[in-house]
Amino acid sequence: MKKKIILALVGLLVSITIQAQVGLNVKKVKLGDIPIVTAEEDSLFKKDGLLCTTFEFAYDYYVNDENKFELWQYEHRAFKIYDEKNAKDLETFDFGTIDPESIYSIQARVIKNGEVVKTYTKKDLETKKDEDAAEDDNPNIILKLSEVNPGSIIEFIIVRKRSNIFEQDDINLQYTYPIKNIQFTIVMPQHLKPNVQLYNGTYPILDTVIDSKELRYTTIHIDYLPAIEKEAVSFYNKYMCRVEYNIAYNLAQSRLRLNTTKDFVNEFYDNIQLTDKEIIKILKKDFIKKIKFPKDASDLDKVNIIEHFMKDELGGINIGVVQLTRFYVYIFNHYKIKYEIVVTCDKTLREFDKNFNGSNFYDNILFYFPSINHYLAPAQNSFRNGLIPLDYAGNTGIYLKTVEVGKEKSFVHSFKKIPNGPAEAGIDNLNLKFKIDPVGATLSGTIERSIGSYRVHFIQAFFKTFEVEDKEQLIDMFLTLDAESSNISNEEFLNTDPKDVGILPFIAKANITNADWIKVNNSTIELSVGKMIGKQERLDDKKPRQLPVEKEYQNSYLRIIEIEIPNGYKPVDLSKLEFGVYDSEDPENATAGFVSSYKLEGNILTITVKEYYNKLFYPVSEYPLFKRVTNSAADFNDIKITLAKE
């Protein structure tokens, strides 16, 4: 729910006369000289596969000849391509969902050996619309290029008019490839002043007023930004150098700050009240009358019943998070259920900044019910029963509580940390029972996995809509244990209803046989017990770690492998199954660990493997502690035990 509101120009610019002027004159910008990449630069950046040689982005706010505000957006990028993968990827530019009518011009070209071999204009653009897009949604605007090869330079300029004069935005200046010559610019009439903040960078933000043109230029120039690494178990996107801005002052009227957190709070209460009489009539008739509570239903019962009803009825309808919130607000108010509204952002993309003093970080909405300590995500259809969505759990949010003074109602706000998700929603428990057939050299038995909703909420919420091929995919995901040789039969899936999300684990069970995990010799049987927990990924670092470890949720694994040893055999080397690895020298205080143990009772060998991660964040300095736990799981994959003839 990015707040992009049309400026109240009547109030904002009352009694102000501004001559028509254009700051950057973006409509006249043309591609210039062919970008030059030196041999030295080629040697430096060839290993990255791609170099962005120019990145210019500008917003130009100005008053046109009719004395009306307009906003134009200009973007200029040039790339040098070094490998086949990037050549293939950059054959198509996807400019995102844009109204085709808003595009003023496209200029693009492919350059080889210093010569332009192909040029493109607006007439070469194509449109593509997603199948699930709403009828009035804009299509994706695509430009397909030809003759793009390693060694090519490709360059484009796109100029478009924005449909709204919006008060805030954000843009990444850093990506997964190195970038040179970065220029971010906002041009405004001099009496409008933006608040611009740079994250993950310390470059100067220049604010320059040119009195003769009555213009204000706010710029950031960066000579070079390295590629951000996509490191395992990290939210690398949130560490990209990024600009956040909003229109902060109208100095022609006063020096009072515009677009503050306080303004957002004051406006948001009214913004989420449902006023459309026709919609209210529909809610009363087709929703409220159909919502039935059992006798003596608690507040928790009522909230869950309302959530399931609403999401079952509206799950496939694209009406936007704000309108959806209005529906819930109306229904909760009708039933006198007390709530607070929490507004936050996606923690995997950016850290919530409560000090920004504006609504830039207010993207996503939750309901919080203090009396039952319960959260509800109105726009997340697969998260039910208080399960906080992964991207918000553990983040900070602004909590909005309703207060009443006389007949007036409004919000008061506070900033709090949203709880981490429940540990039980991150479980993955495996129970494997095998008998050994020495003659046929096979293992046969049963498998059962219980998996918490943080891993499978989407499966539980939409299982009833799955086709046969979808269910076959579930077999590969959860029952074969990453072994092509596993033969699965009589599979069964339990707890596959949306009402199970966050309450009951998804259970997959079946019969299983495998011939690759056993090797029968004349006097011994070798069992690859390490492979029976499924393939474990190893963290192998070719470069020093740059980013902290960040996890979406706490997770744990409990694997119990029971093997019936055939008559005439006994295990000879079980000591390798007894060990523990932790993220602390003191196991009692460890927040992550991998622990293996065994028990031999009669002819039944039971191997128990526990793995847990109870902390969501490890700074770079503690990465080796996390790594040694995860890699011990990968090491376990290599463990084999031997059964010898007695």
Could you write a compact summary of the structure shown?
With 646 residues, the chain is an alpha+beta fold. The protein has 10 helices and 33 strands.
Structural features:
single chain, eight-stranded mixed β-sheet, 10 helices, 646 residues, disordered N terminus
Q: How does this structure look, described?
A:
The chain has ten helices and 33 strands. It has an eight-stranded mixed sheet. An eight-stranded mixed sheet has the order 22-23-21-20-27-31-30-29, with helices on one face. The model is unreliable at 1-22 (pLDDT under 50).
Strand-helix topology:
Layout: H1 9-12, H2 39-45, E1 50-63, E2 69-81, H3 84-89, E3 92-97, E4 103-112, E5 115-120, E6 126-128, E7 140-144, E8 153-161, E9 168-172, E10 179-189, E11 192-199, E12 205-210, E13 215-225, E14 242-250, H4 261-271, H5 277-288, H6 299-314, H7 321-334, E15 340-344, E16 364-369, E17 374-376, E18 396-405, E19 408-417, E20 427-437, E21 442-451, H8 453-462, H9 468-478, E22 487-494, E23 506-514, E24 518-520, E25 524-527, E26 549-550, E27 555-564, E28 569-571, E29 579-582, E30 592-601, E31 604-613, E32 617-618, H10 623-636, E33 641-645
Parallel strand pairs: 1-10, 20-27
Antiparallel strand pairs: 1-2, 2-8, 3-7, 4-5, 4-8, 6-7, 9-14, 10-13, 11-14, 12-13, 15-16, 15-18, 16-17, 18-19, 20-21, 21-23, 22-23, 24-25, 25-33, 26-32, 27-31, 28-33, 29-30, 30-31
